[in-house]
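User: My instructor asked us to take a sequence, write out its structure as tokens, and then describe one feature of it. I'm not sure where to start. Here is the sequence I was given:
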Amino acid sequence: MKRIAASFAIAAFMTACAMPTHTPAPVSLSDTVEVTALIDAIDPANRLVRLRTADGRARVMQIGPAVQNFNQLKTGDRVSVRFTEGLAAEVVKPGMGVTSGRPTYEAGRALPGAMPGASGTLTAKGVVKVVSVDAATNTVEVLGGDGAVRKVRVQDPKAQAFARGLKAGDEVQLTFTEALAVSISPAR
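Assistant: Let's start with the prediction itself. The structure tokens for your sequence are:
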């Protein structure tokens, strides 16, 4: 009886190994946005700056300590802000993904006396478990490390191809990167 059970286990293992893999190739996406705006308000105590773009939209940014010459900012200064956001995703073997406890941040600063500016890169890693995939609506439901299930609408064609190769139970390693560059130039 033990030999029959072992034979079935070996046959099942060999059948599983012979089956074609469903694992989609890793995907990497990025998008860069550059905004030029005027500073229309400054809160020096909290290092907050309200920016107004040419189309009238306002955005409040907290300027971190990497912007060394914050005190040189003035209402009316023209600011260029460039964001590049990237996301990489790949299917990993269960339990083999990496979740960073805290995002890592690398920063560069303007030299003392120069116009205020800074650059920085934020990187965070996490693993999600696929709950369901709906190829018709290009949505994927995932279970995050916090225990919450989220429905994500996939819009990029490369990401849609990746999502169609997923199945419930897959673990996906996600790496999010945000690069930010801020430079200040005199208002014209």
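For the description part of your assignment, you could build on this observation: The mean pLDDT is 78. Try explaining in your own words what that tells you about the chain.
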